[in-house]
């Protein structure tokens, strides 16, 4: 499947920004190929972590040039002790010892996060090999949340027939309460604005406007009220519209919306879909990707001080390229 018009526009925009991205999983073949593509197309300047010998030999065997790519082996890097000391300072209040800090930053994800934290790169993309937890944990420990005590969540950019949608949360917050769900909604609406997607935000449920009654429905109803208040307090004038609770068809099909929710300000044209929990979100994005042939990029993290993004371990080379370009734009 070729690139959608939307992701190509993101890539073209990233080329103009000339930012630097860390790819910590340089020992993975897909990541190496993605690094080559990103480098050749001028999407970003790449720092590739892993065995210098293995990466050099792999590039040579493919006839690819490493010119413009920085290759670092964390375990032999001259920056190792400096980063270990800095990580110790960040975490000593949590009881970490200097020798534990040193062992931690020998790991590629921790070393890569320290590069970003030090301002020596603009963002990081991982997850082709590592689990979401192994990507998010060092991000929370080193990059940290943008607002103290705030929820850090994730979203997917899902392109269906060249129409981009935000799906959230599909990769991180397992069972958000109403307050967390409202934060996720506002974060996702702001992420939509960042990528030129209309921030028409639907709080999804199996119920539309009280057509069913249960604690599950009540959570989404309360989250909708809180999200509307957050928009009014935190980001007025941005054009963010939040409505719910809505069934999916009432959220994205105008004809259905006219029957089920005629008073909805979304009018069946929601582009930001907020799922009530991780089960619903994760299953839904994979159904759309695998059965409808949509492009899916993510999980993309929101609510951090600097851009760090995750990948599915089933990702393709083009997925990595796309997420790297997205990360460049998040750096602004």
UniProtKB/TrEMBL annotation:
GO terms for molecular function: phosphate acetyltransferase activity. Residues 6-328 form the Phosphate acetyl/butaryl transferase domain. InterPro entries: P_Ac_Bu_trans, P_AcTrfase, P_AcTrfase_dom1, P_AcTrfase_dom2, Phos_Acetyltrans/Butyryltrans, PTA_PTB. It catalyses: acetyl-CoA + phosphate = acetyl phosphate + CoA. Gene3D superfamilies: 3.40.50.10950, Isocitrate/Isopropylmalate dehydrogenase-like (3.40.50.10750). Its EC number is 2.3.1.8. The keyword Acyltransferase applies. Pathway: Metabolic intermediate biosynthesis; acetyl-CoA biosynthesis; acetyl-CoA from acetate: step 2/2. It comes from the Bacteria. Transmembrane segments: none annotated. SUPFAM superfamilies: Isocitrate/Isopropylmalate dehydrogenase-like (SSF53659). Keywords: Acyltransferase, Transferase. The keyword Transferase applies. Belongs to the phosphate acetyltransferase and butyryltransferase family. NCBIfam families: PRK05632.1 (NF004167), PRK09653.1 (NF007233), pta (TIGR00651). This is Phosphate acetyltransferase. The gene is pta.
